[in-house]
Amino acid sequence: MDWFAELRNRSIIGEMSCLMGTPASATVITTARARLLAFEIGKLNDFLNRNVPVRQQLEHYFANQVGAKLIQANTALSANPQLQPAAAD
User: Fold this and answer.
1) 69 close to 28: Cβ distance less than 8 angstroms
2) Helix residue spans in 1-89 (DSSP H)
3) Distance between CA 71 and CA 16 in Å, rounded?
4) Is residue 89 part of a domain?
5) Is residue 9 part of a domain?
């Protein structure tokens, strides 16, 4: 199985889904014990709408997590010649 990101202690998953309001698109397999914390999106949004500073901090954290994961995925993709785009004619 190919992988694109390795999560470390205190990493999160689902931030893209939360930010975009779309269904989750990642498959996650743990190789060690993990703690799962899940939120019902409606209740989370209600809480965040009442606590704007918390929303801002969470969105900032999510954006940083997404950026770090994109960098890691791009690095993994660029190291795999089979996933390189075809040369333009």
Assistant:
1) no
2) 15-20, 41-50, 52-78
3) 15
4) no
5) no
What CA–CA distances, in Å, run from 1 to 4, 27, 28, 84, 89? Answer: 10, 11, 12, 18, 32
DSSP annotation of 35 reads -
Residue 23 lies in a domain: yes
| Sequence-separated (6 or more) residues with CB below 8 Å from residue 76 | 3, 4, 5
| Contact between 60 and 53 (Cβ < 8 Å) | no
Domain that holds residue 39: 15-83
Which tokens is 19 given? 């930010």
pLDDT, tens digit, for every residue of 29-53?
888 888 888 888 889 889 999 999 9
